[in-house]
Automatic annotation (TrEMBL):
Residues 101-163 form the PDZ domain. SMART domains: PDZ, TSPc. It comes from Fibrella aquatilis. One of its GO terms (cellular component) is outer membrane-bounded periplasmic space. PROSITE patterns: PDZ. GO terms for molecular function: endopeptidase activity; serine-type peptidase activity. GO terms for biological process: proteolysis; signal transduction. Keywords: Hydrolase, Membrane, Protease, Serine protease, Transmembrane, Transmembrane helix. The chain crosses the membrane at residues 20-42. This is S41 family peptidase.
């Protein structure tokens, strides 16, 4: 697999088994229909049938409440029954309880309410990675490396502490006060700081930098509320720096709002060409989206990176660029989500995300992969099946449906029925992936070592421009040995063979994290350019893309290229 950039958690991100599913659910249930709104719902179709079903359900629930032998939580029963009912529909129609609905919406909104700090859990203790610029924590003087021992009266130490507990303690309505018990490095006694929670912005653009004097790199992590404005600002900045060709990275981007995707496509596609259209059972949900403005980058070679984590709005953008022969798609086949959901907030704050239509690329492709209603488990395992049949490693293992053949503007063959197949396939690089590396990450060893290194050398490193930093910071084998000894002390048994396989990846990722901690304040909001400049050097898909701009130029200006290259 190409390098997945590992970064510290923010207070609005948590990684236990339950909460990992929430961002996945968010990405796989949010598509273009988000912006249609709930006002379209109505009508009287099937009211008699619905009324009979509702009466029966209410009667059974009342009997349970009044007569069942044990006490039961009827709200929990209702949530469970709704979830089971929706399993008879498509895999992306979903019900979110009030708590999950708020958390899911925050992923696509422009921010969240909290204290503004990124944290890391190491040795059963919560450490501050960095206070977010302009947030309450930075204003109060909280520093990288500070330990957060308590939030109000809730202790944040011990083996039971996890990201979810930290998240719940720190988050809260803006304007409310929270008291932190902090222990700073070199201090013997903790101190208490009272903060007032505020709105903390979140960002969609992870990086926007010049890879060389004419090549820009722009990574979008999701199509959130602020995504297009961030993207447009980043694109303008790159052009001002002399960009003539661009790598647009949509890998592991789960999607989001449709109009953010079409607006981005409009920046690349000229005229009034069709960008995407939707078709549902009800004509009210049928829409066509066209290019309508003079975009910033309608000329110039464009490469788009995708993988199996690119879904929904990512596929809308990649599909429009591919169908109009405007972007050269590099990587692996995308997820395959072509269903549109409409989110409807219910009276108790819960939310129904109901599939109301399918979307189609300009050539007429539905990229929704096959599913059987009621067999969600099989649907979720589809990515594992790709791996088992070798699709992540061999281009010929991609089995496109020969009955779903379409043509791009210039006559190239593309396929529907299961994601966007890239124009140029780049296999996963799994050579560095080992169980030992996974244990280092699970114990936060790499992140903590990078943070300690950054803090110990901060005064010297902050004076260096990035080019000098890049030359001077090169972790030695002795320093990596120190890291592995720390891991051993934390219960991670050293494995020489596996460490040897992962060694260069560990070296690169640690250096990238150090750069992130040193240069974060000098970056534009939300961007981690120095991190990606270093991490991308060992990213097989990225490095291959830089060598493919001749194909991207041929795609746009001729001669005609047909089929996927390997």
């Amino acid at each position: 697999m190409e390098n997945k950039q590992i970064q510290p958690e923010k207070e609005h991100i948590h990684n236990d088994r339950t909460t990992i599913r929430l961002p996945m659910l968010l990405g796989l249930t949010l598509a273009g229909g988000v912006l249609l709104g709930a006002s379209f719902f109505g009508g009287t179709k099937g009211l008699n049938t619905i009324g009979r079903g509702y009466s029966k359900y209410k009667e059974i629930l009342q009997l349970i409440e009044n007569n069942y032998v044990d006490s039961v939580d009827t709200d929990e029963l209702v949530d469970f029954s709704i979830t089971k009912m929706l399993e008879k529909l498509d895999p992306h129609t979903a019900y979110l309880n009030p708590t999950d609905a708020v958390a899911a919406r925050s992923q696509l909104e422009g921010g969240f309410d909290g204290i503004g700090v990124e944290f890391n859990i190491y040795k059963d203790t919560v450490y501050v990675v960095t206070p977010l610029a302009g947030g309450p924590s930075e204003t109060a003087g909280i520093q990288s490396g500070d330990k957060i021992l308590k939030v109000d009266e809730t202790p944040l130490t011990g083996k039971s502490i996890d990201n979810t507990a930290v998240y719940k303690a720190m988050r809260g309505k803006r304007g409310t006060d929270v008291r932190l018990t902090i222990l700073s490095k070199g201090q013997q006694q903790p101190r208490q700081i009272t903060l007032t929670r505020d709105r903390i912005p979140t960002y969609a653009v992870d990086a926007a930098y010049m890879a060389d004097d004419q090549t820009g790199y722009l990574k979008v992590n999701r199509f959130s509320d602020s995504a297009f404005e961030e993207f447009r600002t980043a694109l303008a900045s790159l052009k001002q720096q002399g960009m003539k060709q661009l790598v647009l990275d949509l890998r592991n981007n789960p999607g989001g709002y449709l109009d953010r995707a079409t607006n981005m496509a409009d920046e690349f596609i000229d005229g009034n060409k069709l960008l995407v259209y939707t078709d549902g059972k009800d004509d009210r949900y049928d829409r066509k989206y066209f290019a309508k403005t003079a975009g910033q980058f309608e000329d110039g070679a464009l490469i788009v990176l995708i993988d199996e984590g690119s879904a929904s709005a990512s596929e809308i953008l990649a599909g429009a660029l591919q169908d109009h022969d405007r972007g050269y798609i590099v990587g692996r086949r995308s997820f395959g989500k072509g269903l549109v959901q409409m989110p409807v907030q219910l009276s108790d704050g819960s939310e129904l995300r109901l599939t109301i239509s399918r979307y189609y690329t300009p050539a007429g492709r539905s990229i929704q992969k096959p599913y059987v209603p009621g067999q969600e488990g099989d649907y979720e395992k589809e990515l594992d099946l790709r791996s088992k049949r070798g699709e992540y490693y061999i281009a010929d293992s991609i089995k496109n449906d020969p009955k779903k053949v379409f043509k791009t503007d210039k006559g190239r063959t593309v396929y529907g029925g299961g994601g966007i197949t890239p124009d140029y396939f780049v296999p996963r690089d799994s050579s560095w992936q080992t169980a030992y590396l996974g244990k280092l990450y699970s114990k936060n060893i790499i992140r903590e070592y990078a943070l300690e290194y950054a803090n110990d050398n901060r005064k010297r490193l902050e004076k260096l421009p990035f080019a000098e930093f890049d030359k001077s910071v090169n972790l030695t084998d002795d320093q990596l040995s120190t890291m592995t000894k720390q891991a051993t002390a934390e219960g991670v048994t050293f494995n020489a063979a596996e460490f040897g396989r992962s060694k260069e990846y560990i070296r690169t990722q640690t250096k990238a994290l150090i750069a992130r901690y040193i240069f974060q304040k000098s970056n534009k909001a939300g961007q981690n350019n120095e991190f990606y400049k270093i991490a991308n050097t060992s990213d097989a898909t990225y490095t291959k893309a830089l060598a493919l701009f001749d194909k991207a130029r041929q795609l746009e200006f001729g001669p005609k290229e047909v089929g996927m290259k390997k």
